[in-house]
Amino acid sequence: MKFSERKQGLVTDKFKVGYGKKVILSNVNLMAEPGRVLTLIGPNGSGKSTILKSIVKQLKSLGGVVYLNGKATSEMKEAEIAKSLSMVMTEHIHPELMSCRDVVATGRYPYTGRLGILDKQDWKLVDEAITMVHAEEVAEQSFTRISDGQRQRVMLARAICQDTAILVLDEPTSYLDIRYKLDILNSIRKLARERNIAVIMSLHELDLVQKVSDTVACVDGTTVSHIGPPEEIFQGSLVQKLYGIEEKNFDSMLGIMQMPGNKAAPNVFVIGGGGAAIPTYYRLQREHIPFAAGILFENDVEYPVATALASKVITAKAFYPMEEAQLEEAKKILAGCETCICTCENFGPYNMLNKELRSLAEEQGKLK
Ligand SMILES: Nc1ncnc2c1ncn2[C@@H]1O[C@H](COP(=O)(O)OP(=O)(O)OP(=O)(O)O)[C@@H](O)[C@H]1O
Prior knowledge:
- Helix 4 crosses helix 5.
- Helices cover 33% and strands 22% of the residues.
- It has a six-stranded mixed beta sheet with strand order 6-7-8-3-9-10, sandwiched between helices. Strands 2-1-4-5 form a four-stranded antiparallel beta sheet, covered by helices on one side. A four-stranded parallel beta sheet has the order 15-14-13-16, sandwiched between helices.
- The protein has helices at 48-55, 78-82, 100-105, 120-132, 148-161, 178-195, 206-212, 230-233, 238-243, 278-286, 303-309, 324-335, 352-363, and strands spanning 10-19, 22-32, 37-41, 63-68, 71-72, 85-88, 166-170, 198-202, 215-219, 224-228, 250-251, 256-257, 268-271, 291-297, 312-316, 339-342.
- It starts with 9 loop residues before the first strand and ends in a 5-residue tail after the last helix.
- By secondary structure, it is an alpha/beta fold.
- The structure holds adenosine-5'-triphosphate (ATP).
- Adenosine-5'-triphosphate is lined by residues 19, 24, 42, 44-50.
């Protein structure tokens, strides 16, 4: 079957988007399938919102086709599109004198008559959606007098009760605190899983992208440069290249960002292991103190942090005993350091050389 002829979900085929006559991105080929979450990632200004706004026809298409359940949206009336596609945008709407519940209820308008009168079933869906995003406490409050995060949840409820097969969300978590970020992303997964909804959204939190997305599309300012499952996209240095950052400043596997450390000759030697030294690495990084770390197994949980922040890491091969040569290297570096911090309390048979290093630092009066 041809990519664009899939009957369910949303497909963009050689889609061209931009503002006025100016094309910003071209050859955008995306597919949002029922029950799956497609996430757009990319740096600020790369075109994620432009794509999403063009999909929902807030912006005029500059070429190509968007298929909605197999039918080109260019051939569909707005009301027909609204029954299949709902959108949550970051832009604030400011309806005067409306309660949050009333705002959510506008999501039912595609199904009501011209007067916009909701029946019992409509209100049931409105209240279910409010419950789903945990916005009960603000339901009766004025929409203009709630916080950004509350507003974001209310707008999601509005899209949910529109009860469409496809849900488009532009940065649905941008204003939310950590609890609600998790909560909303959980709800989004639930909508995909339980209601078989096709979700297409943009997200900045790369650690969460990996957890919530079935497919990730990289938007690079001219097109969608890569598309694939998170395990493929968050591999190697693809994400770092997309955002124009150094490889070591983002741990793709964990989705963790690292601020650059001071890479001058080390003043401090940190003996760590098992994650215990991570707070020390961060403190030294904040204080701009160059440090060495070791002897660390390359599969140690703190190894990626150490490699990002330390000016020198003495590394032992994973699943192999530490070697004398590594100890000798560590001793040389320790000789040039003023102090040594040891966060390791228990020395097992596989890090006896670190114990030796610690004793040496103690003898030299360097141990803090
Ligand atoms: N109304 C507009 N008219 C003309 N150009 C615009 C308009 N809005 C955005 N742009 C430009 O379009 C490009 C893509 O912007 P867009 O908002 O799609 O990026 P984004 O990936 O969503 O960014 P962010 O992560 O910052 O939200 C940018 O260069 C931006 O300056």
